[in-house]
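Lecture 7 notes: from sequence to structure.

We start with a single chain of 238 residues. Read the sequence below before looking at the structure.
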Amino acid sequence: MTLAPRTGQARHKIFTLLDLSHGKSLERSTEYGRSRWRMPCPAQRFRQSSSARRIRGKVLHVEHIELLTSQYKMLKQQVAGREPQEGHLDFTGKPLCEKKSGFLAFSGVTRVTWFVDLFGELSVEKAMLETCPEQQNTKLTAHLLTANNKRLTWVEERGEGLMRSKQMRISFTDGSCMESLPQGPGGSEFLFMQDLSLFARKLRAGAPFPDSEHAERRRILHCLQLATDIQRHCMQLA
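Now the structure, written as tokens:
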């Protein structure tokens, strides 16, 4: 879905597309003054597009509703100031078409975003991809390391009959352990409206960009680079 006039006079643009369509749309949209973008594309293409926008004084907003949920906000409060000894994040869901949604590390990059937002920049230790075409089952296992070499494991599995589910376990260097995610209040949280409000704030702020936007861009680029590195590790084992 793209919401914008086709004339060169458009100042704002909102589009939501399947992952592999984003790169070309980002490149074409540099003529627009403001853009709101949903879902990931390869790191190099995003870096090129966002750099062009900064030079031209334009604003790019990336939707991250997974950081706006009450559950995540409660999790972040519980984790604040604590260093992980080891962590696991397991996600399951229905199959995706890789031709449309991209490699599993990209379609599931929101899970990596949780780890990065909680514990800082990471590196990829190793990763592997297991597939079972008969059952449309794909399982990605990535072992990530924090700056202090603490291991965080992300498992993303999609297949027929798998319900959407997210589980998280973290042990901390202080000896404590979190065995499950906090329970949110339930009900509608109007996440897309929250995100649209963030986009509107950026439009009002304009350029030069506040420090928070530079930090956001750095996090996005880092997460996309992690997804790229995970894919490379998996391809080396194929």
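The chain has eight helices and ten strands. Keep this in mind for problem set 3.
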